[in-house]
Design goal:
The protein has 205 residues and is of the alpha/beta class. The chain contains six helices and ten strands; from the N terminus they run βαβαβαβαβαββββαβ. It has one domain: NAD(P)-binding Rossmann-like Domain (Rossmann fold, 3-Layer(aba) Sandwich). The protein has helices at residues 11-22, 34-40, 55-62, 82-101, 127-139, 178-188; strands at 3-6, 27-31, 46-49, 67-70, 105-109, 145-150, 152-154, 164-166, 175-177, 197-202. The relative contact order is 0.15.
Length: 205
Amino acid sequence: MKAFVAGATGETGSRIVAQLVQRGVPVKALVRDAATARAKLPTEVELVTGDVMDQANLRAAIADCTVLLSATGARPSLDPTGPYQVDYEGTKNLVDVAKEAGIEHFVMVSSLCVSKFFHPLNLFWLVLYWKKQAENYLQASGLTYTIVRPGGLKNEDVDPRGLIMAPADTLFEGSIPRLKVAEVCVEALYQPAARNKVVEIDRPR
């Protein structure tokens, strides 16, 4: 197994990288700035500079990888096209290139409530709507996938509470440490039951 991680320097993506490294999985990280990434990611991680909007770059970068984990997401901005470009078009590019490359398993970090169009978060340039369209595209691609839908992401990594896991469109509120999200994403690569599933995760109240 060799993992390609998109969104590798983000708060969730960097934790996914760390979990993969802990398991001894070789990692290639897609980054925008190699110097920043080198300071943040483990030294054994292979860095490739690029962007999810550039299919040619992705095609070259992913060639020797067998699994892909995507933790990309539009950053808050005044650009109304941000979620469309990053959450939908960027994921679509990753899916297309992954299919060409014969990727064995595509793990995508999405969000709770993506199926609720009339959700307050969609006031921010339809961010949940475009995540759902990306999910749909991945599910229709023919790739083996796992879609992980977490609640609100927290940077607190120490949390004694367990984990609630549920099918799609079951959980509609809550928050969860990013580390738990990363653990679920990486564990999905090893669990046959996680293949071609949407899993919603939260922590007990």
